[in-house]
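Q: How do we represent a protein-ligand complex in a form that can be generated token by token?
A: Start from the inputs.
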Amino acid sequence: MTGIDICVRNARLRRRGDALVDVAIAGGRIVALGPALDVTAREEIDADGNLVTESYVNPHLHLCKVWTLPMMAEEALKSYRAPGMAHTASAIDLASKVKASYDASWIIPNARRAVALAALYGSTHIRAFADVDAKARLEGIKAAREERIARAAKLATDKGRPGAINPHYLMAELGKVLDDEDIIFNEGVTNAGAVLLQIPRRVPNTTMRSGGGGLGWSGGMALGAKLAAPDRLMVQISGDGGFYFGNPSSVFAVAQQYKLPIFSIVMDNSGWNAVKQSTLRVFPEGEAKSANEFEAELAPKVHFTKVGEAFGAYAEEVGDPADVTAAIARCVKEVRGGRAALLHARVTRM
Ligand SMILES: Cc1ncc(C[n+]2csc(CCOP(=O)(O)OP(=O)(O)O)c2C)c(N)n1
Ligand SMILES: [Mg+2]
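Then emit the structure tokens for the protein with thiamine diphosphate bound:
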């Protein structure tokens, strides 16, 4: 057998007793399994009789509490270990005392260490918890929040290249000029995460998404919201695919006719990235990948600005990361001044 990427030798499997087998992997899938496989692989790993298994999922990990054993009274440990767990209630009571000393400054490094170790021992998915109560206060949440802010800043440092603006940078710059009361309609699809991460909201109901999967809602919804709350800025953020679905000519016509200035941003990554990524997840080494053809590319030379301009909107196309800040400022100025604006941003291609 040829074309094997990895062969794990001498592996012990669950429910197979002490028998040792080899596992051959090609294209991310197990293609052969048996004793002493006659295969040549690009990479050979000797499991040396150790267990080879699917990765683990840890559905319950209190990340704010990891590595706090030394801080716990010895008594708590003893109570936990009492015969028949007779003193569990008092143990929980004693252990919860540790919450009083929670501090985000040590929770972060402890949590990092625990997650790294978990990955090392095969847990690839973790559902984590942070205590929120009178004793723990919000220290665990504070730690998670600090981590999130640091991660967001790191992701936004790279501005991207001309023709391929980093969506995280674009959203971080937008976030700087939005007020707490402004409302975002997030139809960014595969860039929706960048919107959420880079523009944290402080006021409830200032970031909206659709409850269903149908694309094309953000323009209409932004118009409706503008009608309901004329003093607030409405920002429609859409992918290039979603922009088509939203019937943008009607959106800008209504904006003009009924004086409903909204700010629309198209994150143009040149096609239906969600469709491409879904195909790759189902067929990681399939025909579409080898042909590099996902039937997901959209017309390359479009100028969405013209759609807005046809209805009197202010419109700009931005491709160079160096122009992002000024372009956003010009659009926001126009919208706050009463005219709809459209920013066609050429972001990292799919
Ligand atoms: C009305 C409608 N048609 C088709 C789909 C299927 N669909 C889901 S995501 C997607 C691609 C969206 O492309 P784009 O808005 O450019 O976002 P990207 O995936 O590139 O981030 C499509 C076609 C849908 N959700 N709704
Ligand atoms: Mg797209």
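The two ends are 35 Å apart (CA to CA). The chain has three domains: 4-53, 57-148, 160-346.
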